[in-house]
Amino acid sequence: MNGGDNPWGPPGIVAGLPIDILVDPLVTDTLFVNNYGGGNIKSTDGGNTFSLASQGYTGAQLFNVEAFPDNPSRIIVAGRSGVFQGFNHGASWRGLSYPPANFLETSAVSIKPDESNVLIAGAGGDDWMYRSIDNGNSWEKVFTIPNGESNCFRSFAFANSNPEIVYAGTCTSFHTTIALDFGLDGLGIYKSEDGGNNWQEANDANVG
User: Fold this and answer.
1) Mean of the pLDDT values across residues 64-84?
2) What's the predicted TM-score (pTM) here?
3) I want to staple 90 with a disulfide (CB 3.0 to 4.6 A). Which of 53, 56, 68, 170 is the partner?
4) Under DSSP, is residue 140 helix (H, G, I), strand (E, B) or coil?
């Protein structure tokens, strides 16, 4: 327990503010958590205890985490220093922010379910979307939000019925909580029907 009149807790790492959590689909007692203050933490006992799992990258703030569908021991994260891939359940990491995707901040990243070599990433605050077809070794800019000054792509979701269909959610501010605090609106949802190559708005009167 932390805070209140009794700011004490168990020994070990400071939990920080978790941003995203992933449960290993094959080993369900294994959890990965991204920490707002930087780095990943990992549990192998269902969340009873945690340890650091950030060897090989900067430990900058991370915003989302996904496991590769064909090999859940491989993980990918998006953060303020780019895209990183984790191996052996996060025991080691490798940066994937190669040009032209060497942007300073990455707001979201996702893996195509039926082709795990295909990755989609959004650049925080720059209105850009990048796509890789070779596990992040090279990237191509595939879309820019029209008139989207200071907007970013905050999340991606592939359709379960058809992995060629993918949705992208936007946010006015790179930090979602700031956008909510100041009443800022995003630019709604964008949709691709060819695995992320081409995009169009997917908004109606209830979205946008």
Assistant:
1) 85
2) 0.69
3) 53
4) strand
